[in-house]
Amino acid sequence: DAGVIQSPRHEVTEMGQEVTLRCKPISGHNSLFWYRQTMMRGLELLIYFNNNVPIDDSGMPEDRFSAKMPNASFSTLKIQPSEPRDSAVYFCASSPMGGSEKLFFGSGTQLSVL
Amino acid sequence: SQQGEEDPQALSIQEGENATMNCSYKTSINNLQWYRQNSGRGLVHLILIRSNEREKHSGRLRVTLDTSKKSSSLLITASRAADTASYFCATENSGNTPLVFGKGTRLSVIA
Predict the structure, then answer these.
(1) A40 at the B interface (CB within 8 A)?
(2) In this structure, are residues A32 and A68 in contact, taking their beta carbons and an 8 Å threshold?
């Protein structure tokens, strides 16, 4: 198994541009999580899905952030418009158990908004 | 919001020594997990300990959990340079909520 696949690995964009981050979870996993990591705030949960349905998006910082999971093998996190304070590493993780037991993380997307 | 808080924030030891990292948390949990993150990589699950367990071993890793003190420790024995990484504790709170991570301990093992 290839593990959780995220793309792109790095994204550099200018303030105001739309950014789309992509994630392919491990096949058969029921839960998918988007986390954001910064030095100041550590790892923050943005949103998670169970069986493709968004369960809790209370961690999404603003309406500029949106996430979708159109099917079991693909999810996107979109920021529109992006701002410099969105600069962070964004991680996608999946779990086989329909919960939070043993998350499998992707390698992350390093986002820089200039 | 942060649930687990690791201590120390950073730790530097010589190869062969043991490394101990601690995690404290605030609310009741279903389980507590430890993850490792190498620089520029995603987190990797190391070990899970349930709220009704007190100690668990996996290779050179030993995890303890004291629910009365709301704390856990991760011991890495006979450390190696390859153990250099950040280590995070994460808690699944009662009610099957998603994992909440601490800010981590940066471990440096010097050869």
Answers:
(1) no
(2) no
Name, in order, each residue with C-beta under 8 angstroms of B22's C-beta and a sequence gap of 6 or more. B6, B7, B8, B71, B72, B73, B74
- CB distance from A42 to chain B under 8 Å? yes
Candidates B9, B43, B44: best to mutate against A (most CBs of A within 10 A) is: B43
Q: Residue B65, exposed/middle/buried by CB under 10 A (0-12, 13-18, 19+)?
A: buried
Question: Where residue A1 falls among pLDDT bands split at 50, 70, 90?
Answer: low
Contacting residues of A for B2, CB less than 8 Å apart: 42
How far apart are alpha carbons B101 and B3 in whole angstroms? 7
The tens digit of pLDDT for each residue in B39-72 reads 999 999 999 999 999 999 999 999 999 999 999 9
DSSP code string of B60-85: TEEEEEETTTTEEEEEE-S--GGG-E
Are B101 and A43 within 8 A, CB to CB? yes
Name which of A22, A17, A111, A10 is nearest A69 in CA terms.
A22
* Residue A21 bridge partners (DSSP): A77
Count the neighbouring beta carbons within 10 Å of the beta carbon of residue B76. 22
Nearest chain A Cα distance for residue B78, angstroms = 25
What is the percent of chain B with per-residue pLDDT over 70, rounded to a whole number? Answer: 95
